[in-house]
Design goal:
Radius of gyration: 20 Å
Order of helices and strands: EEHHHHHHHHH
Distance between the termini: 31 Å
Helix content: 55-70%
Strand order of the largest sheet: 1-2
Shape: elongated
CATH architecture of the largest domain: Orthogonal Bundle
CATH topology of the largest domain: Tetracycline Repressor, domain 2
Structural class: mainly alpha
CATH class of the largest domain: Mainly Alpha
Strand content: under 5%
Number of strands: 2
């Protein structure tokens, strides 16, 4: 999903969406791990209670620093949440970048790997995913960062759909961008419901395969799209 699809189904890497650094001060010199300790504390506490019930004192105490020292790194706990989301998105980008560039050679495997990479990354950071979903209602910076991330993934999925249509593997249909918006939004909602157990939900063990089946049928109108033929010698 974070690959630029070219002619013949080849996929070239594309840089991730611009990271948000607003609300965060410049990093301290190498070797200072206090910011990391604040972020680790925040993620751990979010596994037990919502952000509204986490105090600055909780974050500072968990990181082994004073309250004034906390403010050297972050101006607020909302800024901590933004930094956590930024870090998880970077991890998701890296996981997706490791997906082999084989869309045309095996579309089901390619899409399964992409969906699984996204699922596994956010499942590993479930408290952050749920806290950010809640914060989007009131925090414009979280909302803006997530909108940029979704837009980037939407553009790249649309490129992939158009490429598959050009090589004849996927039939024409609704605009590729519109289809990409729907598929990415579906993933977002279904995974959130699964992580939050906000029913009705798909069983977590089945969620990747269920999403994959919908993606393949939506893009190809089959779950067994044709692979590209090897070039003739």
């Amino acid at each position: 999903m974070l690959s630029q699809v070219g002619a013949g189904g080849s996929v070239a890497r594309m840089s991730s969406p611009a990271r948000s650094t607003r609300g965060r001060r410049a990093a301290r010199p190498s070797g200072d791990d206090r910011e990391g300790a604040i972020l680790a504390t925040a993620e751990r506490l979010l596994g037990d209670r919502p952000l509204s019930e986490v105090s600055i004192d909780d974050l500072a105490r968990g990181a082994g620093i004073s309250r004034p020292t906390f403010y050297f790194y972050f101006p607020s706990k909302d800024a901590v949440l933004l930094a956590l989301l930024d870090r998880v998105v970077a991890e998701a980008d890296a996981a997706l970048d490791r997906v082999p560039d084989d869309l045309a050679s095996d579309p089901p495997v390619y899409w399964r790997r992409c969906i699984a990479a996204f699922h596994e990354t956010f499942r590993a950071h479930r408290p952050v995913a749920l806290a950010c979903a809640a914060a989007r209602v009131t925090n414009p910076e979280v909302r803006e960062l997530w909108a940029r991330v979704m837009e980037s993934w939407t553009l790249l999925v649309a490129e992939a759909i158009e490429c598959e249509r050009r090589r004849g593997a996927a039939p024409p249909g609704v605009a590729a961008r519109d289809l990409a918006v729907v598929l990415n939004s579906m993933n977002e909602r279904v995974l959130y419901a699964t992580f939050a157990q906000d029913g009705p939900v798909v069983a977590e063990a089945d969620v990747v395969e269920v999403l994959l089946t919908v993606w393949l049928n939506a893009i190809y109108q089959t779950t067994a799209p044709p692979a590209a033929r090897p070039p003739s010698r």
